[in-house]
Specification:
This protein is mainly alpha-helical. Helix content is about 60%, strand content about 0%.
């Protein structure tokens, strides 16, 4: 994962500029996808080291995945 201080300051400036222009809301379309990537990386590290049983209590049950995808 890369973290960019410049990216954070660009986001802060966008929020500040939007507010200054009277824009009350902005849709952040990629934020949930980026959060998911971070979560998957965090989940895969212990999975590779300790195996799937080590993280089973911390993850959603498979039924929740099926519900989400309407299967």
């Amino acid at each position: 994962m890369r973290s960019s201080r410049a990216e954070g300051s660009q986001t802060a400036r966008l929020v500040s500029d939007s507010r200054a222009l009277g824009i009350g809301g902005v849709i952040w379309a990629d934020q949930s996808l980026r959060a998911a990537v971070t979560a998957m990386c965090r989940a895969c590290r212990p999975l590779c080291v300790d195996g799937p049983a080590a993280m089973e209590a911390e993850i959603a049950p498979l039924d929740a995945v099926f519900d989400l995808t309407r299967h």
